[in-house]
Amino acid sequence: MMERLILCYISKLKAKNAQVLKLADIIKNRGKNVPEKLFFIDFRITSEVRSSMIEAYNLSRSINRSLTGYDKKVRPNAGGPPVIVKIEFKVISFGEIKEANMEYSMDIFMRQWWHDPRFKNNYSKPFNMAADPTKLFWTPDTYFWNVKDAKYHFVTRENMRVKISPDGEIYYSTRITLTAQCDMDLHLYPMDTQYCPLIIESYAYTTADVDYRWKGGDKQSVEIVSKEMAQFDLTDVKTYTKSQTNSKGSFASLKAVFSFRRRTESFVSAIFVPAVVLVVLSWCCFFISPSAVPARVALSITTILTSILLKGNVNRDMPKVSYMKAVDYFLLTSFGFIFAALIEFIIVLNTSPVFSPPSWFKKDKRGDKKEIAMECEAHSKGSVDLIVQVMDEGVCRIRNNKGNIKLKPQPKQQLPLTPPVATKTKAHWIDRLSRFLFPTLYVTFLVAYTIYYSALREESDSKGHVLD
Questions:
Q1: What is the pLDDT of residues 212-225, one digit of tens each?
Q2: Distance in angstroms (rounded) separating the CA atoms of residues 373 and 363
Q3: pLDDT digits over 244-297, tens only?
Q4: 249 in the same domain as 234
Q5: Are residues 299 and 234 in the same domain?
Q6: Does the first or last residue of the chain, that is N or C, have fewer Cβ atoms within 10 Å of its Cβ?
C-alpha cells in the first residue's frame, strides 16, 4: 500500500520537471522494496520534489503502522467513554413531495466526524482518501430511521471522501439520495404547511458506545443549497437532539425537521376558479322561463356532473384519509349550491300556475266527434206528439203519431283555426328571489372560507412543529 500512497501523492503535485515521472516509474517497478536511500538517486531533483517525496513516504509508513493490527470491528475507546460522532449535512436539492405515499426525497452530502486515537500520529498534514472507509477501519453504523429508500452515487466513482488528521480525527463525507417518510396533516390542504423530519440514529450502538451530536449545534448543522420546488416553499429547518429508548436500550437520536409551505397559486386556477364558475353557471337557470323545462334541467345536470368530476380529479392523487380537507369543504359547499339550484327549479315548476291550452285545441268529452247544431221544424195540420232524439252526425230519430216531419240540419259556425299570440311570461317570484339570494349567500361563504382558513394557516405556521 505504501507505494500506492506515494504515487497518489505525487499525482497531486504540479511538478513541471519530467524527472518526477521517471522517479515514479522507478518506485512502481521496485514495488515494496523501496530503499531509504531512494532519495539520493544519482540525478538532480529539485528540493520541492525531494521534500514532497519524503513527506509522502513518511505518511504512507504512518498509515500502514496505524492499520497494522487494526481491528475494524472494535470501536475507538472500546470499554471506555462513548465515541462522539458529530453530524452535519448539506442538502443539494429537494425532490418531489408525494402526498399519496406521504414521502419526500432529497439529495444530500452526509458528513460525519469522530475521533479514533489509533490513527494519532506525528505527521504534519491530514491524509485524504477517496475510497470506502468501511473496508479499512471502524466507522459509525449511522442510519436514517424514517428513510424508505436510499442510494449512494458511483459516477464517475464512489462519491466518498475520508480525511484523517494527525490528532486522530476522522472526517467522512458521502453523497446520498434518499426518500423519507413524512406523516402529513392534510386538514388545511391546499393551504397547509408540512413538517417532514429526517431522523438519524445508530443502528447497533447504544448511548454507552456511540453518542450523536450536531456539528454546529442545533441551528447551523443543516445547509441548504437549493430551496426551489414546484409546489412548496422551504420556510424553516430546525434540528433537535434527543434519545430513543426501547427494549434494546437507549439510542442517541438527531432530528432535522423541514417546514414545507404549500404554494396555493396553482390550486386557485385549477380548483377554486372552476368551482366558482360552475356555481355561477348554475344561476343561469333563474333567468330561463319555467316553461323551458329541458333547457333548465340540462343545465343543472351538466353543472352537477362537472362538479363531481372536478372533485374526483382533485382527490385522485391524494391519500384516502378519514377526515375532510379544506378543499373538500369548498367543493362540497359549491356542489350544494349547484344542487340547490336544481331543487329551486323543481319548486318553481310545481308552484307555477297551470297554463290551459287554447279553446281551438280542446276536444269534446265524447271523443273526436264534431259538435253540430240541429234544428227540427215540424209542419202539421193538427197537434203532433213528437219524440225527437238527436243522434251522432246530425241524425235525428223521430217518433210521432201523426203529421209530417221536416228535418233541416244546420252546421254550427266554426271559429277560424289561428295560432295563439305569444306573450312574455312574467318570471316566477321564487326565481326573482333566487337571483339575489344565491349570489349573496355564496359570496358570503367565499369571504368566510378565505378568512377562516387563512387564520388557521397563520396559526399553524406560528405554532410550527411540535417535537414528539
A1: 999 987 677 899 99
A2: 17
A3: 888 788 999 999 999 999 999 989 999 999 999 999 999 999 998 888 888 999
A4: yes
A5: no
A6: C
Co-location of 275 and 344 in the same domain: yes
Number of domains in the chain: 2
- Gap between the Cα atoms of 200 and 212, Å rounded: 9
Residue-range definition of the domain harbouring residue 217: 83-262
User: pTM value?
Assistant: 0.71
